[in-house]
Specification:
InterPro entries: NAD(P)-bd_dom_sf, Sc_DH/Rdtase_CS, SDR_fam, Sec_Metab_Biosynth_SDR. This is Short-chain dehydrogenase. With 299 residues, the protein is an alpha/beta fold. It has helices spanning 7-10, 26-37, 52-62, 80-91, 121-129, 133-153, 155-163, 198-218, 262-273, 291-294; strands spanning 17-21, 41-46, 69-74, 99-102, 165-167, 170-171, 179-183, 224-230, 284-287. The chain is 38% helix and 14% strand. The protein has a 7-stranded parallel beta sheet, with helices on both faces. The radius of gyration is 19 Å and the shape is globular. The mean pLDDT is 96. The structure holds nicotinamide-adenine-dinucleotide.
Length: 299
């Protein structure tokens, strides 16, 4: 019998059903790729305006060898009734969801930027005051509240995955099934850089606590809830390498001396979603090449 310690067993998501929000771009697409290439059935969820069908076609091509597959579903995750419809639609096709990756997110910077480490008081105040209240509301709706309603809406399907009878007294939870993985950010873990990310960072700090609150609430069913806190990763939100990127002076200061990439992000999700991570619950895992060790006060 093959040892359970072989990496292909330990990190297996073969046959898992996964839902990935924001799955047609950036980190969500990297995560969907990692899951599909390893044999999972993945629903990518995104705004109707996103390139969902294009991404579905690419992912289905990637899944040919492993048997992984993809379907796309439009949903604005800032809308509770759309989340309810999404969960109802997936419930009509699936008896369980093994992995919910609640990943969609936005960042809304103050329209008037400034160097927060050096700007005189009046300039700092003008920049911070330019932040729009509607931007705070949408940031929290997508970056925090959506994780809550998605987790609650999918709870019965996640619980069914955790309870899945695998024979010989083993349940889905023994393989890691029945987990919510929220994409937070290392911005929740540091306080000061030369740019103002206050609405974004506070929404992510709220997410970190939400991970613990929901993990505790769902613990009776062993539906695990974990968060990942990435550093810089190339995406639409953070076009690393593009001229004028507001973080460009910081990339070299990450101890890893590079941005994160799809191996870093997909690898972390495969760990947390599989047998390897089945004993990990209620934590946030920072995947930032060491950035938060040095981030405070960076110019
Ligand atoms: N890129 C980075 O450096 C970085 C670092 C830390 C954390 N993150 C987090 O990673 C996650 C993914 O962001 P990304 O960097 O890949 O950016 P991205 O802009 O490339 O992708 C975000 C995705 O979320 C979708 N989305 C936005 N609002 C939505 C809504 N209301 N309903 C449904 N989908 C919606 C977008 O359409 C898009 O597909 C976010 O939570 C972000 O905060 C990114």
């Amino acid at each position: 019998m093959m040892s359970s310690l072989y990496s292909q067993n330990l990190f297996s998501v073969n046959g898992f059903v996964a839902v990935v929000t924001g799955g047609s771009s950036g980190l969500g697409f990297m995560i969907a790729k990692g899951l599909v290439l390893n044999g999972a059935k993945v629903y990518i969820v995104d705004l109707p305006s996103a390139a969902i069908e294009e991404r579905v076609a690419a992912l289905n091509e990637l899944g040919r060898e492993s048997g992984g597959s993809t379907q796309g579903l439009p949903c604005d995750v800032s809308n509770k009734s759309e989340i309810a419809s999404l969960a109802a639609s997936i419930s009509s096709q699936e008896t369980r969801v093994d992995v919910l990756v609640s990943n969609a997110g936005i960042r809304r910077d103050p329209p008037i930027p400034c160097d927060v480490l050096k700007a005189p008081l009046s300039e700092l105040q003008a920049s911070m005051w330019s932040s729009q209240d509607s931007h705070w509301a949408s940031t929290f709706a997508i970056n925090t509240t959506a994780h809550y309603f998605l987790s609650v809406a999918f709870l019965p399907l996640l619980e069914a995955a955790s309870r899945l009878d695998l024979g010989n007294g083993r349940q889905g939870r023994s393989e890691g099934r029945g987990v919510v993985i929220m994409t937070s950010s290392c911005a929740s873990m540091h306080n000061v850089t030369n740019v103002d990310l206050t609405s974004y960072a506070t929404s992510k700090a709220a997410t970190d606590h939400l991970v613990k609150l929901l993990a505790a609430k769902f613990s009776r069913f062993y539906v695990r809830v974990v968060g990942i806190n990435p550093g810089f990763v190339p995406s639409n939100m953070n076009p690393v390498g593009q001229e004028g990127n507001m973080f460009s002076s910081l990339f070299d200061r990450v101890p890893a001396k590079r941005a994160g990439n799809e191996e870093d992000i997909a690898g972390t999700v495969l760990y947390l979603a599989s047998r390897a991570g089945a004993y990990v619950d209620g934590i946030n895992l920072c995947v930032d090449g060491g950035r938060i060790l040095l981030a405070n006060g960076q110019e």
